[in-house]
Prior knowledge:
- By secondary structure, the chain is an alpha/beta fold.
- Helices cover 39% and strands 17% of the residues.
- It is built from twelve helices and 13 strands.
- It has helices spanning 13-24, 41-51, 69-74, 93-96, 98-117, 154-173, 195-204, 224-228, 231-235, 258-269, 293-299, 307-321, and strands at residues 4-8, 28-33, 57-61, 81-84, 124-130, 177-182, 185-186, 209-212, 218-219, 222-223, 245-250, 256-257, 275-278.
- The site of nicotinamide-adenine-dinucleotide has 28 residues, from helix 1, helix 5 and strand 5.
Amino acid sequence: MRMRVLLTGAAGFIGYHSAQALLAEGHEVVGVDNLNDYYDVELKKARLNRLKKNKGFRFFQLDTAKEGALETALGSTKITHILNLAAQAGVRYSLENPRAYVSSNVMGHLNVLEYARHLDGLEHVAYASSSSVYGEREGGPFSESDVVRRPASLYAATKLGGEMLSESYAQLYKIPQTGLRFFTVYGPWGRPDMAYFIFTKKILTGEPITLYAPDIMSRDFTYVDDIVSILPRLLASPPSGEALHKIYNLGNSRPNRLMDLVGAVEAACGIKAKSFIKEQQKGDVTSTYADIRAAKRDFGFEPKVSLQKGILNFVDWYRKFYNL
Ligand SMILES: NC(=O)c1ccc[n+]([C@@H]2O[C@H](COP(=O)([O-])OP(=O)(O)OC[C@H]3O[C@@H](n4cnc5c(N)ncnc54)[C@H](O)[C@@H]3O)[C@@H](O)[C@H]2O)c1
């Protein structure tokens, strides 16, 4: 079946790749994004320009946090599926600008659900949550059935809030929904506020990088193609029966230490990094590690790309995009 997907956050990093994956399989994508300036707007526009080359893609600039914005822009456009990725991302910025998180991640999510509730013929809403909902915890892997009640950052709290809103709308209005807990997604066309992007930029220009608690930090770095390749299948498989709201970890399930990331960027750039060491930042958790058995069982999710290969692809893209 050909899906017509409302994709929020279409100009964002994962949104861009998700749109490409859906379009490549012949689905239609109605993209929306407010093009905010949290990071370089030119990068968002460059992603959009590539998407606009595909006839199956349409775009509306709007803010999902604004009541009625989706309804006004989309009118009676038929939508069969929704992928809600629009959000204020980033853990550290949530200390500086907490209201941006509640606005996009809570109010924006609610507005998408309200829009969804009044659509005819809607089959499924999938949305981005985050590994950060697991908070600070020992060991791993972290499982979807773990109790998650101690968000270590406001970002995590708003993502958990989104999950709760979805649960209530699944129960109240029988909207089939799937929450996707992404684990440190990286790759070409990536996000300039993330460590791998900052390290690449600084290492290539000979600037020192800052490492926060590198002796204890690890992340389950997940290559973007590994995630988006299953999204068309996942969207086409809404939960049914009793549990209309399901949550899946989408991670690599092979955590790497922060120093492995530095090593991968150094190798890809062919330059040794100069670095400063600082203590762990407020809101950052020490480690993330995904149990991905559920996504593997239900969608055949099987991450394939190693950190070294994924970072090499990123650095290749970075050099081309910035002419370096
Ligand atoms: N990249 C990761 O490692 C990661 C990890 C966990 C969760 N996530 C989640 O995945 C989703 C996509 O993340 P990303 O890395 O692509 O981030 P991104 O910042 O590149 O993409 C988000 C996009 O949403 C747009 N946006 C923000 N608020 C909006 C609003 N109110 N209305 C319309 N558009 C709005 C932004 O302009 C941006 O283009 C987000 O929900 C994020 O929280 C990402």
